[in-house]
Amino acid sequence: MIHVEKQFGKFLLRTCHAVEDMRTVLSLQRTVWNFSDEELVPVRLFVVGEKIGGHVLGAFDGEDLIGTVTLVLNLAQNQPHRAEIVKMMTRVSHRHRGIATLLLREAERIAIERGRWLLVLDTAEDEGAAGLYERMGFKLTGLIPDYALKPHGGLTGTLIYWKRLQDAVPA
Q1: Which residue from 160, 64, 66, 170 is spatially nearest to 117, judged by alpha carbons?
Q2: CA–CA distance from 145 to each of 105, 125, 127, 149, 158 (Å)?
Q3: Which of 10-38 are b and which e, b meaning 16 or more Cβ less than 10 Å from the residue's Cβ?
Q4: Is residue 86 a contact partner of residue 70, using CB atoms and an 8 Å limit?
Q5: What is the CATH topology of the domain spanning 5-120?
Q6: What ranges do the domains of the chain cover?
Q7: What is the pLDDT of residues 30-83, one digit of tens each?
């Protein structure tokens, strides 16, 4: 099991393992994305995700969860070199303060530590974090139109990104 606890100025990055941590992550989803209870990722999926190689990182300002990212490490057997970034979010009040960058850098560090040198992610075409990911070195592969529902209704496309963290290591 991976455990992270690092202080960055006034912000603390730490692993979210406990069920109460996951409830806090769900509360942040509700706030950031305006999700209804039915749209939230159930707590049991976080627990199962961690058991199969998912890793949830939270950024805290005091006791308040202000950002989170999930790194999925264990994918298909023919993809042992790859990991996926999912459910990246930052509380609106804390955006443009480096929180997302800290979370992504820590996820990248963990991925490399676990032998994953290729990251993939997707973000909403409308109101997504494409600019952040491009500044962090992710490359746009393409767009899938009408991929997901927007928090306030309607459909949005998703942008697919990838990033090579280090040169491939021959098998």
Answers
A1: 170
A2: 29, 9, 14, 11, 7
A3: ebbbbbbbeeebbebbbebbeebbeeeee
A4: yes
A5: Aminopeptidase (3.40.630)
A6: 5-120
A7: 777 666 665 555 555 555 556 666 788 899 999 898 999 989 888 778 888 999
pTM to 2 decimal places? 0.79
Structure tokens at 28: 């942040």
Amino acid at 82: R
Encode pLDDT of 71-115 as tens digits.
Answer: 988 877 888 899 999 888 899 899 999 999 999 999 999 999 999
Q: How many residues does the chain have?
A: 171
Q: How many CA atoms lie within 13 A of 26 on its CB side?
A: 18
In the block, which residue shows the tokens 């005091």? Answer: 62
